[in-house]
Each structure stands twice: as C-alpha cells, then as structure tokens.
C-alpha cells in the first residue's frame, strides 16, 4: 500500500467515523484529532463526540447506536456501538434516479448456446437427485475426466446430502435448486443421476427444468441400471461427444450474467472490493447484461436504498416482501434479525449488521432493480436482480449459479478457498490477504487505494474478461467446486 495514503478514510461527508487504512497507534494525529487508543486496520475511529444512544454514521447511513459516550479519537466497535435493528418494517417507495456511469461495452470469448444464452465454460455436470448417489456421481466424473482429458472445459459432479426425507416446500426447494443448475448455460450437458426410491424423483426434477434446457439432459436411475457406473459412463460419453465441437466466439458484456457475493468481509470490504464489483455491475447492466444480488439478511439496515432503485411498484413490493419474509424467518425461530456479523467480520472491524449491510449492498452499484427471483428461480430480466437466499457462502453461491450466473464475483477480507459450480472470482479487499493467499485470490481490490478507482476498474475488467474467456480461477485450479442446498424444513 502506498506510503502516501492517509491513515484513515472518511467514506461519506456525513460520516461521524473514519476507517483506519493501516494500524494506528495511540497518540497519532489523524484528521486534526489525537488518537486516544490503538485502532486496527479496517476498524473505526470517532470523528465527533457521541452521547449515549446517538447514531453512528458510516457510508452516509446510520450503522447503529452508541452504548456509552464516545469522544473524538476513540476506537468505535462492539464495546461502545450496538445494532438498532428490530423486526419487519413497512416500506414506502420513493423515486431515486440511477447514478450509473456509462463506460461502454467490452468483448469476451464465450460459447453461444442454441437457446441464445452465453456460457463462460463448456462442461458436463452430473447432478445427483439424492445424497445416496453423490459418491457414485463423483466416481463417474473422475473416470470420465481421465477418458476425455481436455476435450471440453470440465466434467464435474455436485454431490449434496438432500433429496430424500424431505417434505413440501423443503423438497420443492431442493428440486428447484437442482433444476436451476441443470439450466445453467455453463453446463453444456447434464446427467441427472438418481437412486430410484428417493423423494426427489427424476421425473419430477426433469419436469422442473425449463423446457429449453431439457434437450441437454440425460437421466439414469441407479436401482434400475444393471451396472450404474458403466451406464453413467456411456451417458457422459454421449454428452461429451455432443458438446465437444462447441467453439468460443466474440460476445458482449450484455451476454454476461454475474453473481455478486461477499464472504469473510472486513472493514475494508465496503471501501475497496464491494464498490469495485458495484462499478462492474453497473457497466454490465448498462449494456443490457444481468447482475444478481443475494444474501438477503446482509442487506438488513440498508434495504431502503436498494428498494428506492426498484424499476416499478411491482418490483418494489416484491423486494420489500422478500426482505420482510426473511426477517419473519428469523423471528419465527425466536432469533433477532441482527444475529450477524460473524466472528471474522467482527475481528475485521465490522461491528453491526447495519454496517455490514451498508458495505455489502455496494456490490450492486447503482443499477435499477428490475426483478426479484425466488430461491431456485432464474434471473431472466436485464438489469439487477434480487435473489432469495441466505448469507451462507455455499448456499447463496449455489443459488446464484442456479439463477443463471456464469461467473460468481466473490469479495473477501478474511479469505476462503471454496469455489462453486461456475467460475468463482475471489476479490481481496486488502493487500495483506492477497499477498498471504495468492493461491486463493484472483484480484486485489486494494489497488483502488493505491492507483485510484479507474485504474482498479480497468485492471479488474481485463482479469474478468480473461476468466470469462477461459482463464481458470484459483478455485478452479485447486479443484474447489461444490454446491450446498438450503435446508429449511423437517427431516423425516
């Protein structure tokens, strides 16, 4: 990080705190204040006096209320700041003009599918209907990779523990998620591998897949096959032969569908990595592409700013209902809606859910909110979509892939190696993480602090277009591919 950078950053003119860009010692002079106690990088420093119960403002938004008086120069964190979130709310629409910058289009090399969708990878996916055949699916995939080498971009099995002992909406959610994955354009061919006696029957799952995608799907019931490994191998071979002739061609940013995700956030995530994604999302949406925001509990406290960007009253009402439905999900379990941030977030300087949310929603930039998508559904309208899913990294990233994302852009301040069905681009919020974990991280967003936002945006776009065009992410190189399904009901 450049030595010319200031020690702290005041994000918005209305903020009553600043964020430390490096560790600050007691006694240092910062913004005309004497620092009263050590402040770690990513943590907050009071810029003004606060009384007990006063709001603390960051990003121009209240991020909680003080629990005791705070003097200028003090460290502001969980010892003197607490959430002000409660339960469900009545939301009132207001008109807010988009502030997106129009930067222009860019090309990448991808696969155009017969239904018009564009893919960043040309792969065969094996999707088990039930956990009982998850290891069988992985065995079929391993053997197929040895047979076919690099004829296509990959052959992957996505095992999970669900598909049986589920009822009602819980079973329907599992089926919807798997159907959405089967429809993802990165899966040029799909094998649905069943057991035979499970609740998640193959016929019902096949019927849930959008009709345009069913032609690329093959099915196999293990209990009905003599040798399920040989039968599965033959079907995968058939799919490989069908998709191997596909070739990349020049495509537009309008053909991209990007999933927006953060995990292991720190106090710099909302200053570097998340705004970087927001500016990229604006650029994609401005030319007619799609960006998908999820992690509904991690917009609590910042949802009004997002709702104000709804394209119309129907979208506004659907988004507001989704936020309140998620709050009710917490309340019905006897839990507060503010049961967040995680221990890692707290260590990184994030104190309250309002603060976490205010930083997290920046991944969505300033694009108009054009659609709201149920869990397991597909984002089909150009612009920004709000997708129903929790904050859990694996569950929400799997839902992004099921919604049609052909890239998942994943910001992190603490780091994580895990990748998901589509290329998962890990974006570090700080130099320390990028330098410590180069085998996890694809891009260092702290470049924005050194060289400015425009330079970071240009470098990130180059990296992203290369990955969309076939350059493997760090997670892909490490073989990190997984899904997780949102389990919401009883288990029989």
UniProtKB/TrEMBL annotation:
Record keyword Glycoprotein present: no
Transmembrane spans: none
GO molecular function: lyase activity
Record domain SAF: where: 15-82
Pfam families, sorted: GD_AH_C, GD_AH_second, SAF
GO BP: any one term: D-galacturonate catabolic process
Keywords from the UniProt entry: Lyase
Domain of life of the organism encoding this protein: Bacteria
PANTHER family: ALTRONATE DEHYDRATASE, ALTRONATE/GALACTARATE DEHYDRATASE
Family listed: Belongs to the UxaA family.
Name of the protein described by the UniProt record: Altronate dehydratase
Organism listed in the record: Novosphingobium aerophilum
């Amino acid at each position: 990080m450049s030595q010319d950078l200031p020690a702290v950053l005041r994000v918005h003119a209305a903020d009553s705190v600043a964020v430390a860009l490096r560790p600050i010692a007691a006694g240092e002079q910062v913004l005309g204040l004497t620092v009263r106690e050590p402040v770690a990088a990513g943590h907050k420093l009071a810029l003004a006096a606060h009384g007990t119960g006063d709001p603390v403002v960051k990003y121009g938004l209240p991020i909680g209320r003080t629990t005791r008086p705070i003097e200028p120069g003090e460290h502001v964190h969980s010892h003197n700041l607490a959430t002000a979130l409660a339960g469900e709310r009545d939301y009132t629409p207001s008109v807010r003009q988009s502030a997106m910058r129009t930067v222009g289009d860019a090309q990448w090399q991808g696969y155009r599918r017969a239904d018009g969708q564009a893919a960043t990878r040309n792969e065969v996916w094996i999707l088990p209907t039930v956990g009982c055949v998850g290891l069988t699916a992985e065995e079929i995939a391993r053997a197929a990779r040895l047979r076919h080498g690099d004829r296509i971009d990959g052959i992957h099995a996505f095992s999970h523990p669900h598909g049986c002992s589920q009822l009602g909406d819980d079973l329907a959610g599992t089926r919807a998620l798997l159907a959405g994955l089967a429809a993802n354009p990165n899966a040029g061919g799909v094998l649905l591998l069943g057991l035979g006696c499970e609740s998640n029957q193959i016929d019902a799952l096949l019927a849930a897949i959008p009709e345009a995608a069913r032609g690329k799907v093959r099915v196999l019931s293990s209990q009905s096959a003599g040798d399920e490994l040989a039968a599965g191998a033959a079907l995968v071979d058939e799919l490989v032969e069908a998709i191997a002739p596909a070739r990349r061609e020049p495509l537009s940013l309008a053909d991209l569908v990007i999933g927006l995700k953060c995990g292991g956030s720190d106090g710099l995530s909302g200053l570097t990595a998340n705004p970087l994604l927001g500016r990229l999302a604006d650029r994609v949406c401005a030319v007619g592409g799609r960006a998908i925001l999820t992690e509904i509990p991690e917009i609590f406290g910042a949802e009004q700013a997002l709702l104000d960007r709804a394209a119309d009253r129907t979208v506004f009402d659907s988004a507001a209902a989704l936020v309140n439905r998620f709050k009710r999900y917490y309340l019905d379990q006897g839990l507060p809606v503010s049961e967040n941030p995680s221990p890692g977030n707290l260590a990184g300087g994030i104190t309250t859910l309002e603060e976490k949310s205010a930083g997290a929603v920046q991944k969505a930039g300033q694009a108009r909110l054009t659609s709201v998508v149920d869990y397991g559904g597909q984002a089909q309208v150009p612009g920004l979509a709000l997708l129903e899913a929790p904050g859990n990294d694996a569950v929400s990233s799997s839902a992004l892939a099921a919604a049609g994302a052909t890239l998942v852009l994943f910001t992190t301040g603490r780091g994580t190696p895990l990748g998901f069905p589509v290329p998962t681009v890990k974006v570090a919020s700080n130099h320390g993480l990028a330098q410590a974990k180069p085998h996890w991280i694809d891009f260092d967003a702290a470049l924005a602090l050194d060289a400015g936002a425009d330079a970071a945006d240009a470098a990130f776009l180059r990296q992203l277009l290369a990955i969309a065009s076939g350059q493997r992410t760090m997670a892909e190189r490490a073989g990190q591919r997984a899904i997780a399904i949102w389990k919401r009901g009883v288990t029989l």
